[in-house]
Amino acid sequence: MAKQNYYSVLGVPRDASAKDIKQAYRKLARKYHPDVNPGDPAAEQKFKEVSEAYAVLGNAENRKKYDHFGSQAFSGGFESAFDRDSGFGGFHTGNLRDFFNSRGGFAESVGSIFEDFFGGAQQRPHTASHRGQDREQTVEIRFEEAVRGTTIYVQVPRLHGPVERLQVKIPAGVDTGSKIRLAGKGEAGKYGSPAGDLYIVTHVQPHPYFTRQGDDILCEVPVTLAEIMLGGKIEVPTIDGKTTMTIPAATQNGRLFRLRGKGIPHLKGGGQGDQYVKVRVVLPETLDESSRRLIAEFDQRNRLQPRRHMRY
Length: 312
Fold this sequence. Notes:
The protein has about 300 residues and is α+β, with helices and mostly antiparallel strands. About 35% of the residues lie in helices and about 20% in strands.
């Protein structure tokens, strides 16, 4: 490659300005970069050629030598270094930058291009562009598992490779749509790049009598007419088991009672929500004649006008 005309490689005239040479190189480097053309030997070869040409013409001192002595001024230096690079099969910007930096003057002309082009001297663009794909996988868990946390096993299909069985720790307090990140458990990266991440998305199954409201739990509890009228102690379910709650006499139907700390643990931070118990009166579907007389007598003794405030 040392015998080629570097001006022709970059497509610029011999009297081109430094700015024109730089612009021509940037355009060709973007076009033929191996990350843009994976598995294309012709593009890799072209990228090598334009990089070599710019290493010479992009440096004032090197360009002056080239204009006076031609490619003989660099005989052996470029060819041997590029040939040692495994036929360019493992070539990336890090190889090229290391090669140029080892030759002093070349670093000044090419190093800034790579930093500007790829966003920093320490970055290797192929690592970012070939990073493995992130994956999401939805799992169903029971309401109790979401509240207390659990450990599950998931089967993860791979685009390339066998199904993988992973153990996943579900933290206490997750809800439907919560995501647990498993770093590096996504799809494998290319050319030695890092693997992507796997996100486990939780879907919480509904509970027969608990309803979630943020980190609080709402539970509707049926009570009898006597319990709500006369008051007393009743058993109510919580996520931790049964507990006893006192109903005051003459409690109105639908009243909410608060059980502190009986809700769902906060996913971020300590503590947990509360449980709210809503009492709902259940009446008998049929009444015998004696019961009817008792209710009528009760109504006569306790005259109410519940709709008095309503104006028609």
